[in-house]
């Protein structure tokens, strides 16, 4: 099977996944009250410290230099990139604007379909962005009439929210209540897109009609500035005491961008920014000390990555007076992204994180510059080197992302592209581990494994799960997310097959899978090094409900870099034996029993071979094929995946066994 390349598909994995990211955080997500919250308040403390004598923010000064900088950076782009941006604008010019019918909006309430309406909205936004970029490159007025049309259509939309996000309004799901503007992910992101168009093309738009810029400011005030200033009860803000997640910094970063670009009244702008900083502190206050993102590396861009660019914007608007460069927690939040990197566009994925991801180069570089960290700077250049760059549709989907990458394009080109490829990355708070055979090389065996609990944000029931890569190619895999739908964010989530532990590399004990919820957690989790080998162990018994009748299930991974092997050793105590235990292993390619006690596993590109050694007296072997009828899953893994099951033969209440994964040796 050919390796999937997300940059060569008609609908890229990045585009599909970013739509998948826009999931509501209800049900299991974000509802845990914030207990024992750490009152770090690092952002607002720094803001207060610098504001004691004189105002710290100079928005008007920043605007003048920013607009000129954008023009200069666009002019300095290569002829090829400029031509591509113009080509995309020409293509957009030839397309009709999508209609957004009420019946399409209501589909989510009626049958759970999100994709129809959301897809139509994204096509509108993408067209507007491509037209704006084409006009900024050419500066000939070619695209201004259609930009004006696109802005007017956007400003006339009843809501910038998606149907799935209307749980935020008091009326709940259905149609948007015109008397209650709400701020959510897509409202804030659309606002930032509109604000960029206004900021960079205000004079030109005024010539089309002096009413159009007034309409822009009116709608931004009605949809963003006024509700943000007047309301504290949006859960993602954090003021209600409810625990926040990436919604907080994702929305706040777009609100900050919108504010500095388009809010001209300083008497309202200053308190809004102060409230914005206080709100974003709730996100940072809840972050684990190890800097790990429990939603995974594909969410980092709109979590820790968004925080980095948020701080970078605050720093720039303060003319570098705000300084967060001594904060080691924030530094760890930045370096997390390369700690979870396997090779190329492959990352350690668990839960709703996808297996393929190239971090936004500018988001990575923001941390590199903030901490003068050469590893982060070079990793940012590496990320840029394996993407199509500024003509990449992923960057063009967000106007802010495009301009942030434009700002650092010349600096990234001058750097050596290099991924750190650390041999060992251990995150004790998240209980996530990544190990490779050779420091600085993707060659050899790579292990990613996790402990934790089954109440994490965007959780799958996957405690004790692991992935194996060989020479950078996936062998034993985590499937990652399916396309989001209504059931994804309700209690029905746990009925979706790929969220269940039986479709992860976890044991099925007495016919019972793991259970969802914070209390279903690993215990006695430890990570140590002994005689050149790495040991990662945990007791999984607590992740199973009572009917599993398990008192103890110790799972230990022993990584031996010299031998290029991973041993999986387990020791268990059952209260009752009901049926055999299944050890499940999900693979991207079919497996083959080459002889009794040895199973051949191949990597996704079918050339790298890993052998699983087991005791045939203890286990029998079964395998099955799972057809993937979900777009997001099939984009990642092809038409099907495979589940290898080792089933215990004895009816023991106590026992232990050992399996060994080793490359190229039978």
TrEMBL record:
Gene3D superfamilies: 2.70.98.70, Chondroitin AC/alginate lyase. It is found in: Cell envelope. It comes from the Bacteria. SUPFAM superfamilies: Chondroitin AC/alginate lyase. One of its GO terms (cellular component) is cell envelope. Residues 447-592 form the Heparinase II/III-like C-terminal domain. Its main location: other. Pfam families: Hepar_II_III_C. GO terms for molecular function: lyase activity. PANTHER family: CHROMOSOME 1, WHOLE GENOME SHOTGUN SEQUENCE, HEPARINASE II_III-LIKE PROTEIN. This is Heparinase II/III-like C-terminal domain-containing protein. It comes from Rhabdobacter roseus. The lineage of its organism: Bacteria, Pseudomonadati, Bacteroidota, Cytophagia, Cytophagales.
